[in-house]
Amino acid sequence: MGEDKELQVIEVEDKQRKKLEKMWEVSAERADEIREKKIETWKRKGAMKEMANLLLNIPLRSEYEINEIKERFPDIPVNEMNLSLSLLIKQIDRALEGDSKAFEVIRDTSGQKPIDEQKIEMETKNVVIDILPEFENE
Description:
By secondary structure, the protein is mainly α. Helices cover 62% and strands 0% of the residues. It is flat.
């Protein structure tokens, strides 16, 4: 079973190389270099995303910030107060002051971003397709 997986990986790498060769008209060696750089970039982005999540989940230590949140939102337990919550509250404050971009960030982050839709209206005509003409004469 391991050999099948290795074969699949080789096939995928070969497809990626051919795609890069065709897109940029480069040699197989250059396509490999480009693919490796792309993989490194994806790994860096993944690492940055992981670091950002770690930082946003750091518990608040500042008594001032904890007390400020407690006053405004007494139902939030102290152990759930983190940097992410503090930043969100600051964005809410900016939105309440009239900052429309702050409002958009809050809305979009909460999953309420409206979907841009374009409706296309088409006029249709009744079309008859003769699927089996060879049976007409029977």
